[in-house]
From TrEMBL:
This is DUF2243 domain-containing protein. The chain crosses the membrane at residues 21-42, 62-86, 98-118, 138-159. It comes from the Archaea. Coiled coil: none annotated. Keywords: Membrane, Transmembrane, Transmembrane helix. It comes from Natronococcus jeotgali DSM 18795.
């Protein structure tokens, strides 16, 4: 065990920048999906719909502003992920891997679902996934968390399936160059 937090995942050093970029990008894309599909298209909920009455015009306006601020946050995560990806590609020792990038993006989306679900649905209770949907509100909120767990596990599995990303498959150390 080393002090390098990323080493425990067993990734090659040159792959880690792509995985970091993918996770940040996935957080942004997961937020965009939530905001665009669940908030705007399906209109299952708004950012503050458990605290306000979205049928009252002033409350709806407040929710639209809150949804917009949420979208700004997801936009910033997406831009940060793209910047990290460009930096990773520019590194001379970088090893671009489509599979590792895809897996880490899925993993990041799962992280978004877990954080958003735990904080907004359970801790703050500012909204729920589909309060007017069939079944209990808790069922939909737990389902959202399970979706996050599946994306984290599935994304990690995709990363681990990429032989070029895994340290040790060709004698490469999983840790950084610092002595342990």
């Amino acid at each position: 065990m080393t002090s390098d937090g990323d080493a425990r995942f067993g990734l090659r050093e040159r792959t880690k920048p792509f995985v970091r970029a993918g996770v940040v990008l996935g957080i942004g894309l997961g937020g965009f999906f939530d905001g665009i599909v669940l908030h705007q298209l399906l209109q299952w909920h708004h950012m503050l719909s458990a605290r306000t009455d979205p049928t009252v015009l002033s409350d709806l306006r407040l929710n639209v502003v809150a949804d917009g601020l949420f979208d700004v946050g997801t936009y910033l995560f997406t831009v940060a992920g793209i910047v990290l990806l460009i930096r990773a590609w520019r590194r001379s020792d970088g090893s671009p891997s489509g599979r590792a990038l895809l897996g880490s993006t899925i993993l990041g989306w799962g992280v978004f679902n877990l954080l958003e679900g735990l904080v907004n649905h359970h801790l703050l209770e500012i909204h729920h996934v589909w309060p007017a949907g069939p079944g209990s509100v808790l069922l939909w909120d737990v389902g959202f968390l399970l979706w996050g767990v599946l994306f984290v596990a599935g994304g990690y599995a995709v990363i681990r399936l990429d032989e070029r990303s895994i340290a040790g498959s060709r004698g490469e150390r999983a840790t950084d160059d610092r002595p342990t």
